[in-house]
């Protein structure tokens, strides 16, 4: 959430920042709500002063033995009006909070202005092998097969998944299931052992308050899977409404990792916090339409290793660059060509102030596809979560900065390994770093 107190001092940066994201801020509505709020506060303060003056006058009259009935009658009317004003103020503040809960973060000044992914800016690319004249990877010299054709040889089964749960799910068996597990374990070990993250195991089901804090609610409720407890009716049918006891499957473990600092005041020396978790993620893909209907790219359930950092505000952009490097390290170890792209203002996520996407090369699609997104949310999530720190024991609490990123999406990494390490005979070379997790297996070979 944006800083209301700062906006009351200077609204123009908000208007300009949101305009860069293609969001038109209703200045007139804000000014009307602020005028109502100020009027209520002024009347409240006036009545409180009048109540104090009447109390003093009543005391003086009684001490002199004079009639205080008129002053008493006046003083008895004030609490009724104050209660009404309190309700009016709560209503205005609730309307402001509800409105601002749907307004995205402001972009950092370094973010390129644009409308869509077409306006994103490539920062660099890493291609360990040969390239074609367009700078694309050219290490596969035969007609590449896609991950579906390759995967079905090794245990990828969409028909079984469709029978179990419907479209956009998968069943993995045998060597492919083992490769999927190896990827997740390698990613987790890398972030813990080489980059200093603390491994966490967190709930896959969270409440509405946690999702509000990280920015998924209320705006993106339709993208979530809602959970109904057995024996209880779920009365919340309006996507715009959520109760604290409403439960949801996580769409990323960013939610649960970042949510661990909700309503906390951390010691300054506890920062930075580096947290990581391997978890399944669940997304309804309500707005995906007919995109990526073939294969593993866009699933309702997928695994991801997530990185989260909770840092001092002055260190958040340094942390952002380091987190991008942590994700790149995994891709390089897997020998997967990729590029780093800075997202433009129109393509960033709701809570982000600045985002880099890492896109891995998929030979069968002849394109780069997102495999990691790393964002600095600055204090946007922290303000919603009330996550703060004290620089020292006497300092006033300040909001932390929160960052998150994939390290990496396991299913898409599986796709990339299959397609980039495929051989002309249909086999797939297992990357060297994964072989210890695969019992020393060097190659997946189709059954004859």
TrEMBL record:
Residues reported to bind ATP: 283-285, 370-373
Alphabetized InterPro entries for the sequence: aa-tRNA-synt_IIb, aa-tRNA-synth_II, aa-tRNA-synth_II/BPL/LPL, Ser-tRNA-ligase_type_1, Ser-tRNA-synth_1_N, SerRS_1_N_sf, SerRS_core, tRNA-bd_arm
Gene Ontology cellular component terms for the protein in this record: cytoplasm
Gene Ontology MF terms in the entry: ATP binding; serine-tRNA ligase activity
Residues holding L-serine: 252-254, 283, 306, 404, 406
Keywords: Aminoacyl-tRNA synthetase, ATP-binding, Coiled coil, Cytoplasm, Ligase, Nucleotide-binding, Protein biosynthesis
Pathway: Aminoacyl-tRNA biosynthesis; selenocysteinyl-tRNA(Sec) biosynthesis; L-seryl-tRNA(Sec) from L-serine and tRNA(Sec): step 1/1
UniProt domain Aminoacyl-transfer RNA synthetases class-II family profile: residue ranges: 146-431
Pfam family, one: Seryl_tRNA_N
Family classification: Belongs to the class-II aminoacyl-tRNA synthetase family. Type-1 seryl-tRNA synthetase subfamily.
Entry comment, domain topic: Consists of two distinct domains, a catalytic core and a N-terminal extension that is involved in tRNA binding.
Protein name, per record: Serine--tRNA ligase
């Amino acid at each position: 959430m944006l800083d209301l107190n700062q906006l009351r001092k200077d609204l123009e940066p908000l208007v300009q920042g949101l305009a860069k994201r293609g969001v038109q801020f209703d200045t007139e509505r804000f000014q009307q709500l602020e005028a109502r709020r100020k009027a209520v506060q002024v009347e409240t303060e006036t009545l409180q002063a009048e109540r104090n003056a009447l109390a003093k006058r009543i005391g003086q009259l009684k001490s002199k033995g004079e009639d205080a009935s008129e002053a008493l009658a006046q003083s008895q009317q004030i609490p009724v009006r104050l209660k009404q004003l309190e309700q009016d103020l709560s209503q205005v503040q609730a309307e402001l909070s509800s409105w601002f809960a749907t307004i995205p973060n402001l972009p950092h000044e370094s973010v390129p202005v644009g409308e869509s992914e077409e306006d994103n800016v490539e920062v660099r690319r890493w291609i360990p092998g040969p390239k074609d004249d367009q700078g694309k990877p050219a290490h596969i010299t035969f007609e590449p097969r896609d991950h579906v054709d390759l995967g079905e040889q090794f245990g990828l089964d969409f028909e079984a998944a469709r029978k179990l749960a419907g479209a956009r799910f998968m069943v993995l068996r045998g060597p492919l299931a083992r490769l999927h597990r190896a990827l997740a374990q390698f990613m987790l070990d890398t972030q813990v052992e080489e980059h200093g993250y603390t491994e966490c195991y967190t709930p896959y089901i969270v409440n509405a308050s946690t999702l509000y804090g990280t920015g998924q609610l209320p705006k993106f409720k339709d993208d979530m899977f809602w959970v109904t407890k057995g024996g209880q009716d779920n009365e919340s049918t309006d996507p715009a409404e959520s109760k604290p006891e409403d439960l949801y499957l996580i769409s990323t473990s960013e939610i649960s990792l970042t949510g661990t600092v909700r309503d906390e005041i951390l010691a300054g020396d506890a920062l930075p916090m580096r947290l990581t978790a391997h978890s399944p993620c669940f997304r309804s893909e309500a707005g995906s339409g007919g995109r990526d209907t073939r294969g593993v790219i866009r699933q309702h359930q997928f695994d991801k290793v997530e990185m989260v950092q909770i840092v001092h505000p002055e260190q958040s952009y340094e942390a952002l660059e380091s987190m991008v490097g942590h994700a790149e390290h995994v891709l390089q170890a897997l020998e997967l060509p990729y590029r780093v792209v800075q997202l433009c203002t129109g393509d960033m996520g709701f809570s982000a102030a600045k985002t880099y996407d890492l896109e891995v090369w998929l030979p069968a699609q002849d394109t780069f596809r997102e495999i990691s997104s790393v964002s600095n949310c600055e204090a946007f999530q922290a303000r919603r979560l009330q996550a703060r720190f004290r620089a020292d024991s006497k300092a006033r609490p300040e909001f932390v900065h929160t960052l998150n990123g994939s390290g990496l999406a396991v299913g898409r990494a599986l796709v990339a390994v299959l397609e980039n390490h495929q051989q002309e005979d249909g086999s797939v070379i297992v990357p060297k770093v994964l072989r210890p997790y695969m019992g020393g297996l060097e190659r997946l070979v189709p059954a004859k």
